[in-house]
Amino acid sequence: MGSPELHAPQVCTLQSLLADCGLSDDLAAAFAAKTTLADLRARLAANRPHLLAHVKELGIAKLPDRQKLANAIARAEKAGQMPAAALAALPHLRPPVYEEAEDRVSVRLKVPAGTTTHQLRCNIDANSVRVEYCGERTAACGRLCGHVLPSESDWEIERTPAPEYDPLREARDQQPEALEDTLVITLHKARAERWVSLFSDALSRRHEPPPPPPEDEAALALKRERQVLIDRRKHEMLYGKELTPMPPKRPELLRLEERERVEHQRRRQRRAELEAAHGDGGRGGRVQATGGACPTLWNAEEHWQTARATLLWRTGLARHAGAPEHPADCDPFYVWYEDAHAMVVRSSTARGTPATALKLQAGSNFVECFVRGVRSMWSGVLVGKIEPSSCRLEVLSPPSAEETGAAAAATVGACCDTLQLTLVKAEPRGLWLAPWPELLDAIEKRERSSAVLRDKPRREELEAGGWDAAQADDTWQLIIPFRSGGRLTHDDLRVGVTADALNVHVAGQQHAPLLGGELHARIDLARSSWSVRTAAPIGSVSVDEMVITLFKERKATWPRLFKRMYA
């Protein structure tokens, strides 16, 4: 008996697939004249619902017949019965990816590389979006699951950075050119509510952030072991104890730190490459719908580092007062008053307390207060840095109504003195808001809650035109107009700075700044300042202006103020 003859799989054609679906000869012939099998395969690989809609447009009206054709193509593809040919890339037919925020939705649709604004058409209505590429419907077409504001929505093309040419490689070994760019559509919601999906009648995918990398338990154990030694040494330094010598780092920890350093350098290099690719103009620039260049926008919630920031003192502010949280029917246990140069904390104490009963230990960023040998609650790490030699703890007699509260002055005035802690700031232009971080956390939580309840106006309600900036050799001056009056006072405004970033916002709204971003170079925080002045009204609307002066760390001419701005 001879060996069985081996047959190659039969190659399907469009006509054979249409015949297998049971279509009439006339309908099959008319359909085959309008399309090709390769086009249908590419559309099926990109988006099956879009293929079904496309087949309907070409003449097959019945849904069962369209589904039979799509299933037949998929089965033949899986069985290897399709012609061996490369499929056309149709990125604009793949379902778009969307990311949702409280007040907006960002939609990202892939398009062929090199797509121009003239090849795209984007229509945004109150409850629908339709995007066409070269006259053809894309996957970003459908009825939205919520309502948007078309006048405030926009779109732009985000270019994929071109690969860097390596002169040491042959032409065939160079990295291939990018095949896709990205169309980014920003939809502003009419109401702040969560959407179930992007479209109610089309496919889309919600953006899922990548999972965090798995934690290395051995590395964590090494870091915890070293941190315990560091914390013990800090405790000994803080309380003046004999310092225990630090043991040398274990070889495993040294290798781990070297690995992390290399990875950090690689991330910085990659970020620098992306920044260069996304700069103004060039192959990797961001292009608006109008075709002009647009600076890269970052999410302030992700990139503004609140823990590192310093709030600048407003010129003209006499002082800022505060107290810890307390019941409404009781006076606070103590109060504090802050001006540009010092933070003063006051409380009632027993009448006749001698100065010898007080003891103050102060460092550059902490204080320890003792009364009659007992450590008081006025102890711990401070919000800012101080001049230890200038700080003092003393007793004032008698207390005034301003110091203890009008209600308590009459009661405690005859039996109490005032205990006062004076902290002289090392950085005079900083605004602390509170002496200790735990008090500051409570204030920030209360401000964020006020922002959620809309007790203070939002950014959109305050905007009164654009902002202006001008630079000299050593300074930048910014002017930001805003609508004044109503629920907003000048004490509600904040100007936060780091050495290389700026965030101008309303208290509790640092993630939606009036103006902010990463600066082009470093600034001198100690000399920078800001103030508020009255501006000319716009019609019947009262307008004030924030005037911010930023001193450069080094005299130079910057090409622009911001590298990246916060959205």
From TrEMBL:
GO CC terms: cytoplasm
Pfam families reported for this sequence: CS
Compositional bias (Basic and acidic residues): 271-283
Region annotation Disordered: where it falls in the sequence: 261-287
GO MF annotations in UniProt: unfolded protein binding
GO BP terms, alphabetized: protein folding
Domain CS: 462-562
SUPFAM superfamilies registered for this protein in UniProt: HSP20-like chaperones
Entry-linked PANTHER family: NUCLEAR MOVEMENT PROTEIN NUDC
Name of the protein in its database record: CS domain-containing protein
Organism: Chrysochromulina tobinii
Lineage: Eukaryota, Haptista, Haptophyta, Prymnesiophyceae, Prymnesiales
